[in-house]
Task: inverse folding
């Protein structure tokens, strides 16, 4: 597989680099304001989404510019926040969708429909 790269001047970026970062190992009580303070130092941020109760300790950070995202990854991977070392990765859609097993979810829905007598078939 050929490596696709982006250029800005003489800077070449690897293919996995993108504007969306996936952050793990965050303190559970971190606020959006604290996230903007930490990540905003490296460029303009379009959006930050902090995990819910099921995904506590994680967040997505979307930068306006891909080079700002790269700078943030370079500087914040391993950064200490409230005695927790951040894990900052580039978001990879293919990798995340693999974690969500669609077949398993469909089987679970079918099992629940059978258990409670719910049908999705048209009754006409």
Result:
């Amino acid at each position: 597989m050929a490596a696709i790269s982006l250029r800005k001047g003489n800077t070449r970026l690897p293919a996995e680099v993108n504007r969306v970062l996936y952050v793990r190992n965050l303190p559970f009580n971190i606020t959006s304001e604290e996230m903007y303070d930490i990540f905003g130092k490296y460029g303009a941020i379009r959006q930050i989404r902090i995990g819910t109760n099921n995904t506590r300790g994680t967040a997505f950070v979307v930068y306006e510019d891909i080079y700002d995202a790269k700078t943030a990854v370079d500087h914040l991977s391993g950064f200490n926040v409230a005695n927790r070392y951040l894990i900052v990765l580039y978001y990879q859609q293919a990798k995340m969708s693999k974690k969500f097993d669609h077949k398993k979810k469909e089987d679970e829905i079918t099992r629940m429909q059978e258990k409670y007598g719910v049908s999705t078939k048209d009754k006409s």
